[in-house]
Amino acid sequence: SGHVAIAIDGPAASGKSTIARELSKRLGLVMVNSGTMYRAVTWKVVKDGIDAENPAAVAEALEKMNLQCGVDGLDSTLTVDGIDPGEELRSQEVNAHVSHVAAVPEVRRHLVDLQRSYLQHSDVIMEGRDIGSAVFPDTPYKIYVDADPSVRQGRREAIGEIDSVTDRDRKDSQRETDPLKVADGARVLDNSGHTVETAVEAALEILIQQG
Ligand code: C5P
């Protein structure tokens, strides 16, 4: 398509969203948080009383869902059956169920298609778990943002979120379809000791080398 994708992957609460958002501003690229899409499907599944641990039921619910993705300036937008779930995407219930929903192959297939479609319209910086390995495997721009588990769990607790990040990481790494891993060609950025400023500088340095 001629458009460029920058893939930012890594485990939960590694700081990849903050880095991706800052890169988006500095480089003027549309930023897409793919976790939001998995959370949106999970939000709808939970809301409709569907068992998130029943892959067949989740796949059936997905069939009936109208998931719309778009762009607003440098931000991406998303609605489920016309509704933007907003802050409900970060609820304790969504945190607890999202890794089950994200392991369903039909869910991944559908969301990966939506993620790839962004590239038809613009360059993107996209963050997630499998962006460099499965969504845009051919892009040269791949960063895997990691941090110590205690640092990551502490980040969630600091904002009062109830979320077992190590639990999600284990499920996300062990699933069969497109698990969390360091993609071929990705550079690892250890964010444990960084400030936002120095992390973004390190990310820009990696991108320059990959270009
Ligand atoms: O990035 P975030 O923590 O919001 O992602 C929520 C969940 O969505 C992850 O724990 C994972 O289960 C799923 N996810 C995924 N693939 C992606 C992005 C997120 O499986 N590319």
Structural commentary:
With 211 residues, the chain is an alpha/beta fold. It has helices spanning 16-27, 34-47, 55-64, 92-101, 105-117, 131-135, 149-158, 165-174, 196-210, and strands at 5-9, 30-33, 67-72, 75-80, 124-128, 141-146, 187-190. The strands form two sheets. A five-stranded parallel β-sheet has the order 2-5-1-6-7. A two-stranded antiparallel ribbon has the order 3-4. Strand 3 and strand 4 form a beta hairpin. The mean pLDDT is 96. Bound molecules: cytidine-5'-monophosphate. The site of cytidine-5'-monophosphate has 14 residues, from helix 2, helix 4 and helix 8. It is an enzyme of class 2 (transferase). It is found in: Cytoplasm.
Strand order of the largest sheet: 2-5-1-6-7
Total count of strands: 7
> Mean pLDDT, rounded to whole units?
96
Largest sheet: 5 strands, parallel
How many DSSP helices?
9
Any idea how many domains?
Answer: 1
End-to-end Cα distance, whole Å, is 18 Å
* Oligomeric state of the chains in view: single chain
Shape: globular
| Radius of gyration based on Cα positions | 16 Å
CATH architecture: 3-Layer(aba) Sandwich
* CATH hierarchy class name: Alpha Beta
List low-pLDDT spans. Answer: none
Helix share of residues?
A: 40-55%
Percentage of residues in DSSP E strands? 15-25%
CATH topology: Rossmann fold
Output the helix-strand order: EHEHHEEHHEHEHHEH
Bound molecules: cytidine-5'-monophosphate
GO molecular function, one term: kinase activity
Enzyme class: transferase
Region (Disordered): 155-179
Subcellular location: Cytoplasm
